[in-house]
Design a protein that fits this description.
Elements: H1 3-18, H2 35-50, E1 57-58, H3 63-68, H4 79-90, E2 94-95, H5 112-124, H6 135-152, E3 160-164, H7 167-181, E4 192-196, H8 202-210, E5 217-220, H9 231-243, E6 247-254, H10 266-276, E7 279-283, H11 294-299, E8 308-310, H12 313-316, E9 324-328, H13 331-338, H14 357-360, H15 369-380, H16 383-405, E10 408-410, E11 418-423, H17 432-449, E12 455-459, E13 462-468, H18 476-502
Parallel strand pairs: 4-5, 4-6, 6-7, 7-8
Antiparallel strand pairs: 1-2, 3-9, 8-9, 10-11, 11-13, 12-13
Helix pairs in contact: 1-16, 2-4, 5-15, 6-15, 7-8, 7-13, 9-10, 16-18, 17-18
Bound molecules: pyridoxal-5'-phosphate.
Length: 503
């Protein structure tokens, strides 16, 4: 069997396995008695059952204005009125982030069982922050964190972390721990150097600023043609900085970059970080959970050598937005940056043997995030997650071959499930502005159709279309739809061009 056929066969198998993540039977909801719950569940059911027909994107300028007509007021509104409003402002408008057609930015989908976890977390209002008052809720989160530590290959005894609201805050937490561990303080900051490539997610720069490190010297390490950090360039930069009396303290690698899913060479970077005493942080917010697949494990070798890692369950574990995670090799580093014994919290002190999120994070009262992650993992088991993730990698490879075959230029072969591509017709080859405009037009046409939603990026002044496959609901039909749409748009463009020339 040739590779193309085996790729397609495998995709079919994976899709069937991944389908188990679809919404389950919602029969229990019939017991709900109160009107708001009835309507909320009816809304959810209608939303989920019509999801395959819904668009992934519809430009929306109206709903914010509608919403303004419903200010917070003293008197209650009727559930019918409120749910009718929700239908009006949410259905068939704006980005539909639950849709399998969402192929832009970094999608995830949002598992139904996670929503049930949220519902129960809110109903029970479990306090997931301090072990003493809520041991099960804290333990649940700690078990999830332990599982993630094992997934990356961290030592069981010392590692730890917590669930954050997302990748940006998880990266912030890691940077703060690194800052304190490496004693980057006041007068030392302007001489302290940080290393990463142009592919680093912008939140890292934002986080450095928020962490009081805006004056650090930023070193952008050169990359290979595949947008991966060149370790020998990193080493040269560090040595030069040392010769100039600077203080290299942090290197940030990407394990799945947002633009192209590039993975920096983690082992080589770890060697250099160790040699020169730098904190090694890996932003695997997008790529981290691909460690559940053999392909991901292979590609992220060396990740366990990082001092800190960010991986977002609201990306690669398909959770709804609001779930990130930061894990560190030595949990004491998070503890030292965050721990505080307040007088009114003294009853919790004897229970410090089990680390509580309050001890290692800036948060105190917080959403019980653990339940929304724990429940789907318990009810689905890991198998469909592994299948869905491998499916996403292969779908991206499938698309890569497809668009190449109809004349699109592509970026590097996708390491994971994000890739770039653009259309460069022969007659425009030397006209970068026209190429950029043409591709921007293609994007507009795809998104005006709305059945699938794509985004773009700019690299070295070139406009690229971007494909990001990560929603558990994205299957081969969505990719085929995009492919046929692109083919049609490109044919239309050609026709328009030839008519233009004929005139
Ligand atoms: C690699 C990477 N890091 C960090 C982030 C930021 O994560 P969040 O949007 O959850 O704050 C993203 C978001 O897409 C990302 O792709």
């Amino acid at each position: 069997m040739d590779t193309w056929t085996s790729l397609q066969n495998r995709l079919q198998e994976l899709e069937a396995a991944a389908l188990q993540l679809e919404q389950p039977d919602m029969a229990f909801r019939k017991q709900a008695s109160d009107a708001a719950a009835e309507q909320a569940f009816a809304y959810a059911r209608q939303f989920l059952t019509t999801l395959p027909e819904q668009k992934a994107f519809v430009e929306d300028v109206i709903t914010p204005r509608i919403l303004q007509q419903y200010p917070v007021q003293d008197e209650p509104r009727k559930p019918e009125e409120v749910f009718a409003l929700l239908h009006k402002i949410f259905d068939d408008v704006s980005l539909n982030a639950a849709s399998g057609g969402h192929l832009a930015y970094i999608p995830g989908g949002g598992l139904y069982y996670a929503a049930l976890g949220d519902y129960l977390a809110a109903v029970t209002n479990k306090y997931s922050t301090v072990f003493y008052i809520s041991p099960a809720a804290v333990k649940m989160e700690n078990i999830l964190i332990r599982w993630m530590c094992e997934l990356v290959g961290y030592p069981v005894d010392k590692s730890g972390g917590y669930l954050t609201s997302g990748g940006s805050l998880a990266n912030l937490s890691a940077i703060v721990a690194a800052r304190d561990a490496k004693q980057v303080k006041a007068e030392r900051i302007p001489r302290s150097t940080v290393y990463f490539t142009h592919q680093v997610h912008h939140c890292v720069l934002k986080d450095l600023r928020v962490a009081g490190l805006a004056e650090c010297v930023i070193r952008e390490v050169p990359m290979t043609d595949a947008y991966e950090m060149r370790p020998e360039a990193l080493q040269q930069m560090i040595e030069e900085d040392l010769r100039n009396g600077l203080y290299p303290w942090l290197v940030v690698a990407s394990a799945g970059s947002t633009d192209v899913s590039a993975i920096d060479p983690l082992n080589e970077i770890a060697d250099i970080a160790e040699k020169y005493g730098l904190w090694f942080h890996v932003d695997a917010a997008y790529g981290g959970f691909f460690l559940l697949t053999d392909i991901g494990k292979q590609k992220m070798k060396g990740i366990h050598r990082a001092d800190s890692i960010v991986m977002d369950p609201h990306k690669g574990l398909f959770m709804p937005y609001g779930t990130g995670a930061v894990i560190v090799k030595d949990v004491q580093t998070l503890w030292r940056s965050n721990h505080f014994d307040a007088n009114y919290m003294q009853d919790a002190i004897p229970y410090h043997d089990e680390i509580s999120p309050a001890d290692i994070s800036p948060e105190l009262s917080r959403h019980f995030r653990g339940l929304r992650v724990w429940l789907p993992l318990q009810l689905h088991g890991l198998k469909p997650f592994r299948a869905a993730l491998e499916e996403k990698i292969l779908l991206t490879q499938y698309f890569y071959h497809q668009v190449k075959a109809i004349g699109f230029e592509t970026g590097p072969f996708p390491e994971l499930s994000v890739m770039i591509y653009r259309y460069v017709p022969d007659h425009l080859k030397d006209n970068i502005t026209a190429i950029n405009e043409l591709n921007a037009r293609i994007l507009k046409k795809v998104n005006a159709d709305g059945k699938v939603f794509i985004s773009s990026t700019s690299l070295n002044g070139q406009y690229w279309l971007r494909l990001a496959v990560l929603s558990f609901r994205t299957h081969r039909a969505h990719i085929d739809y995009l492919f046929h749409l692109l083919k049609k748009i490109v044919e239309e463009e050609h026709l328009a061009q030839s008519q233009f020339h004929a005139v």
